[in-house]
């Protein structure tokens, strides 16, 4: 069997993808670098050698998640540079449930001063990008983000997205008022 060596960039990406899975399951406080290493199929000391600490790995994971949303929105804006176009693109991310859950864990961990600056920067960059891509006012972008946060929470709870839980009456009522939530 011939093994090909991954480049440093490929290994970094592999570890961040494993971290998305691990941090989605346990959050920042409940996840260890050993869990990330096991998912990635590497040793725990290797994870530390690449990232230096669990905190730096989590921050890299948050930056990756924010970049993934930005990538999705930039591509969508090529076809439809409206809030609706970006909303439909975000809906596609419901299939990447771990990514959305990691974002929620990041927002929850933002009270930690070492994490908060990166998480706030990520969120601020997303807000600014929406305004740049769509020409939305601050109020329109705020409303878009409020709806998007609700979609994120509902996706994390499996109310929306692939393999949803059986609907309950409150879900039907709530989804009836959400743009881009149908389907």
TrEMBL record:
Q: Which Pfam families match?
A: TetR_N (PF00440)
- Provide the alphabetized UniProt keywords: DNA-binding, Transcription, Transcription regulation
Taxonomic superkingdom: Bacteria
Q: Which residues form a coiled coil?
A: none
Look up keyword Chloroplast and say if it applies.
Answer: no
Quote the DNA-binding region ranges, renumbered to this chain.
Answer: 32-51
Provide the HTH tetR-type domain boundaries.
9-69
Q: Which InterPro entries match?
A: Homeodomain-like_sf, HTH-type_TetR-like_transc_reg, HTH_TetR
PROSITE patterns reported for this sequence: HTH_TETR_2
Q: Does the keyword DNA-binding apply?
A: yes
| Stated name of the protein | TetR/AcrR family transcriptional regulator
- The species this protein was found in: Actinoplanes sandaracinus
From the broadest rank down, the organism's phylogenetic lineage runs: Bacteria, Bacillati, Actinomycetota, Actinomycetes, Micromonosporales
């Amino acid at each position: 069997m011939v093994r090909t060596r991954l480049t440093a960039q490929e290994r970094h990406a592999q570890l961040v993808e494993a971290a998305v899975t691990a941090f989605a399951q346990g959050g920042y406080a409940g996840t260890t670098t050993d869990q990330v290493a096991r998912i990635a199929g590497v040793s725990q000391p290797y994870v530390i050698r690449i990232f230096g600490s669990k905190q730096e790995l989590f921050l890299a994971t948050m930056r990756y998640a924010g970049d993934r949303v930005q990538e999705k929105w930039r591509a969508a804006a090529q076809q439809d540079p409206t809030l609706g176009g970006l909303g439909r693109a975000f809906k596609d991310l419901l299939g990447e449930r771990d990514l959305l859950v990691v974002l929620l864990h990041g927002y929850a961990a933002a009270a930690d001063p070492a994490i908060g600056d990166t998480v706030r920067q990520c969120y601020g960059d997303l807000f600014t990008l929406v305004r740049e891509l769509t020409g939305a006012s601050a109020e329109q972008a705020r409303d878009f983000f409020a709806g998007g946060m609700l979609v994120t929470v509902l996706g994390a709870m499996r109310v929306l997205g692939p393999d949803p839980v059986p609907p309950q009456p409150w879900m039907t009522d709530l989804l009836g008022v959400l743009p881009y939530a149908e389907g």
